[in-house]
Write a structure and sequence with these properties.
Layout lengths: L1 H8 L7 H41 L3 H4 L6
Helix pairs in contact: 1-2
Length: 70
Amino acid sequence: MNYILAKVLLVSPPGTPEYSAELGKMTGLSFPVIALPCTVVMMAALFYLMRRVRQLTALELEQIFRLHQE
């Protein structure tokens, strides 16, 4: 994703003020374009994993993580 972002934004020759401005814009956009989608996908994978563990074990989350006192 970072490569695609660089190919789209970095069009000026390196060493020019325009290139520095484009690099700054790319750095600023890297979080919303790269980190947020990755975080959403990771959260979805974790929720799916926990749902499947609950289905396969027939245990509640408190029992899986042993959150209750015995």
